[in-house]
Amino acid sequence: MIYYMSQKVLLSSKEINIILHRLACQLLENHLDFSNTVLIGIQPRGIFLAERLTKILKEEYGVKHIDLGFLDITFYRDDFRRGDKTLEANKTKIDFLVEDKNVVFVDDVLYTGRSIRAALTAIQSFGRPAEIELLTLIDRRFSRHLPIQPNYRGRQVDAINDEKVKVMWKENDGEDVIYLINT
Amino acid sequence: MSELSVKHLLGIKYLNKKDIQLIFETADHFKEVINRSIKKVPSLRDITIANIFFENSTRTKLSFELAEKRLSADVINFSAGQSSVKKGETLIDTVNNILSMKVDMVVMRHPNPGAGIFLSKHVKAAIVNAGDGAHEHPTQALLDSYSIRERLGDVGGKNVVIVGDILHSRVALSNIFALKLQGANVKVCGPKTLLPKYIESLGVGVETDLRKALNWCDVANMLRIQNERLDISYFPTTREYTQQFGVNKAMLDGLDKEIVIMHPGPINRGVEITSDVADSKQSIILNQVENGVAIRMAVIYLLASKIK
Predict the structure, then answer these.
(1) Is A3 a residue whose pLDDT tops 80?
(2) Which domains does chain B show, CATH number per domain?
(3) A132 Rama sector, left if φ>0, alpha if ψ -120 to 50, beta otherwise
(4) In this complex, is the C-beta atom of B2 within 8 Å of any C-beta atom belonging to chain A?
(5) 3-state class of A132 per DSSP?
(6) B84 pLDDT above the threshold of 70
(7) Which residues of A touch B26 (CB under 8 A)?
(8) Beta carbons within 10 angstroms of residue B308's beta carbon
C-alpha cells in the first residue's frame, strides 16, 4: 500500500453491514421468496458481495433457497487488445437455467458501466431472462460511459477519475472496508 | 497478470512451464464455454485468421476452424491443392499476399520442418504451427497433456509411453517436450528402425518390449503408422507390427492397473489398437478431440491478445 499517495476510509465495516442489510431487505421486498429470481455475482469482485447477500437473506430473513451463480465477462469485454495486458479469465459457474427468470446482477463498484454491458451480452448464452436488475454496493456517479444505472445501490460516490474505489472483504482481504484511493 | 512468453506458437520447445499452465487454465474456461447452449464468445471479432494447409488434414483443420469461429474471428481457408503454389509461388509470397488482405494470424501446416519458424522471421503476423513435417505439432501435444491432466489430475510424475513411429512423428516430439517440461517420465516404444538414434538425449527412456512398457506406464499414447511417410520398409509387414506393437483388450486386462489409452487419430483400427480398446472406458481418444477445440481457443486467444 506504500505507493498510494493517500487513501481514506469511505465505509467502515459497521456501515457496510448496515448497507448490506438494507440491500437484502430491498431485494426481499421485490423478490419475496426468490423462487423465480437468481443472483449472479460478476467475476471477479462481485462474487463476495453476492455470497454475503445470499448468506444474510438465508440466515437472517429465512429465505430457504436462492440460486447463486458467478458470471465471468472476460471474453465479452470491449477492450480486448486495447491494453498492454492479456485479459485473464475467471470461472463462470451457473448451474441453473436463467430462461424466464428474474436475474439480479451483483457487482461491488459501478463505474463506467462497461462490465455490466459485457455481462448483459454474456448472460444471453444461458437463456433469455424475464428481466435483469443491477445491484451495486458503490455507485460512482458522473463517470458512466454507457446509459446503465443500478436498481439497488449501497452508496453513491462522487469520485474523480484518478481516484479509485477499493472494496475489501473479510473472506478475501482480511476485513470489510471500502477505501477511496488517490493515485 | 500473466501472459504468454512468445508471440508465435512454433513449437513446445519455445514455451516454458508457466506458458503451458496459462494455456491450460484458459482452456478450462473455454471448455465451459463450448459446453453452453450458445458456444460462442465475441472476444476476437476484430481478428482475421488464415488457415493455410499445405498438407492434408481433417481433424486439426476442423478443430482450428471451429476454435476460431467460437471466438468470433473471421476465418479464411487455403489449401495448397487448389492454389498458386502449384504455379510456382514461394511460401513468403503466398503468405504475404494473404496478409495484404489484412490478416492478423496464420495457422499453418506444412510438410517441411521449420516452415513456421522460417515464416515467423519474414512476415508480420502471429504464426501458429499446426504441424511442420516431422518436427512439431504443438497444439496436439498441449491437448494430449491437457487430457491427461483432466483424467489423472496432473501430468507431473506420471509415466507416459509413446508407442509407434517415433522417427517420423511430430506428435511424438512435441509430446516429449511438453511432458518433460511438466515433469512427467517419458518412454518411447517401437521397432528399433522407427526410434531415432539419439532419442535418449531428450531425456526419455527407450523400450522395445511393449508389454514391459505397458506395465510401467500410467498412460499409453498410441501413434498411427503413417504409411504415407514410410519411404522404405521399416518393418516387414503391418501384421508383424501389430503382433509386436499393437494393443488389444486382453493385454490391457492382463495388466495389474488400469492405464489410460490415447491416440492422436486417425486410428488404423486393428493396427495400433483394436476396436475394443479404442472404444473402451480406458480410452480418452474422443476427449482429446473435444479438448482440442478448447486448447486451440486458448492458444489463439492468448496469442491474439499480444497482437498490437
Answers:
(1) no
(2) 12-137+289-304 (3.40.50.1370), 139-288 (3.40.50.1370)
(3) beta
(4) yes
(5) strand
(6) no
(7) 88-89
(8) 6
**Answer CATH for A14-78+87-160 from 3.40.50.2020, 1.10.1240.10, 3.60.15.10, 3.60.20.10:** 3.40.50.2020
pLDDT at B307 over 60: yes
- How many Cα atoms sit within 13 Å of B203 on the Cβ side? 12
Residue B82's pLDDT is what?
63
Helix, strand, coil content of chain A in percent (nearest 5): 30, 30, 40
What is the model's pLDDT at position A56? Answer: 96
pLDDT for position A76: 93
Least confident of B49-63, B127-141, B290-304: B49-63
Q: Do A76 and B42 touch (CB under 8 A)?
A: yes
Q: Within an 8 Å CB–CB cutoff, is residue A4 touching chain B?
A: no
For residue B283, what is the DSSP state?
B
At residue A6, the pLDDT reads 81
Ranges of each domain in chain A: 14-78+87-160
Spatial contact of B160 and B141, defined as CB atoms under 8 Å apart = no
Collect all residues of chain B within an 8 Å Cβ-Cβ radius of residue A127: 37
Cα B7 to Cα B120: distance, rounded to the nearest angstrom: 9
Question: What is the count of residue pairs from A and B with beta carbons less than 8 Å apart?
Answer: 59
pLDDT at A159 (0 to 100)? 79
